[in-house]
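Translate structure to sequence.
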């Protein structure tokens, strides 16, 4: 799914933000250079994943498989050698990154990129583990550690020991901007056939599981959210992941039928301005390492691509030179290419 954002440029500097309108296969956000507006989100602020956000699987040790299904998103391992990555490029709808030339055929040698991603994973894990104020009441050890069968609102949840989702499905109910962070003091265990169900518009990109040790996702289970484990992550046969499996120290076992990177947040214009010479500068808040396309139009029908890039940060700026200051109004739209 492409994420689109469209804005109209008036003759004066402006900052734009938008309501959203959903159409089949497209998500539009239309900005009319009104003052910034955002829907308030429930729960804590999301965890900034930095440069590891584009990985569906990122590991510190081996990535093994017995023949799992397709992975949508990038895959990488560091500091382990590329020979420890046992996925094939045919399984990955994205890029396999390795630290050396021993990776699978078609993989990309990128030790610096992987080092940065692992560093950002460390920062994200520390950030998630350190969130406060300390949970209490129903947010501390909900379900006595087993949240199967519960329906949880957005918030910060803490488990002093192992967290489990067994016996029944877990439902997370909230809006598209609401956030859940789960601090797991030991393992996270997801039972056979159990599902994490999202209701009310909740999005996998806003669900974060900080796990002190390891994760096991049971056979035929369906899981949502970003897993950040200090040790190993195991996806058993026929399990599904709508999120990320990020294992810092140990490896990832991928025997599931599918792993899909959560759709990123719609890119949005944070500034659109024109100087006296007619140059137009647009500034976007986007998701790093997702291919970005910027287009312009005078009639909202015929669009011309004026820039393509893969930003390495969440803020991106582009200047279109010498736009006629007395010409017709111009519209701008930006979208991220899906994996």
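Result:
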């Amino acid at each position: 799914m492409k994420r689109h954002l469209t804005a109209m440029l008036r003759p004066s500097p402006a900052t734009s933000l938008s309501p959203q309108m959903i159409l089949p296969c497209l998500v539009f956000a239309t900005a009319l250079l009104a003052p910034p507006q955002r829907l308030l989100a429930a729960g804590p602020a999301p965890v900034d994943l930095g440069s590891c956000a584009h990985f569906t699987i990122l590991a510190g040790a081996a990535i093994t498989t017995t023949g799992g299904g397709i992975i949508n998103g990038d895959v990488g391992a560091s500091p382990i050698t590329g020979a420890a990555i046992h996925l094939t490029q045919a399984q990955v709808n994205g890029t396999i990154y390795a630290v050396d030339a021993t990776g699978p055929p078609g993989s990309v040698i990128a030790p610096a990129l992987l080092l940065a991603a692992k560093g950002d994973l460390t920062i994200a894990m520390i950030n998630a583990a350190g969130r406060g104020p300390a949970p209490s009441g129903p947010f501390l050890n909900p379900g006595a550690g087993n949240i199967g069968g519960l329906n949880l609102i957005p918030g910060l949840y803490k488990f002093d020991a192992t967290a489990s989702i067994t016996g029944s499905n877990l439902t997370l109910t909230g809006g598209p901007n609401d956030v859940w962070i789960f601090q797991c003091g030991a393992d996270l265990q997801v039972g056979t056939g159990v599902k994490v169900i999202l209701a009310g518009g909740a999005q996998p990109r806003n669900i974060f599981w900080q796990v002190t040790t390891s994760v096991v996702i049971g056979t035929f289970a369906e899981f949502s959210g970003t897993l950040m484990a200090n040790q190993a992550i195991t996806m058993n046969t026929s399990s599904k992941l709508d999120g990320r499996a990020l294992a810092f120290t140990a490896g990832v076992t991928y025997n599931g039928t599918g792993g899909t990177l959560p759709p990123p947040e719609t890119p949005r214009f944070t500034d659109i301005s024109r100087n006296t010479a007619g140059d137009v500068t647009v500034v976007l808040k986007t998701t790093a390492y997702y291919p970005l396309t910027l287009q312009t139009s005078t009639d909202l029908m015929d669009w011309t691509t004026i820039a393509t890039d893969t930003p390495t940060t969440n803020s991106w700026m582009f200047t279109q030179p010498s736009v006629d200051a007395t010409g017709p109004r111009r519209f701008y739209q930006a979208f991220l290419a899906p994996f």
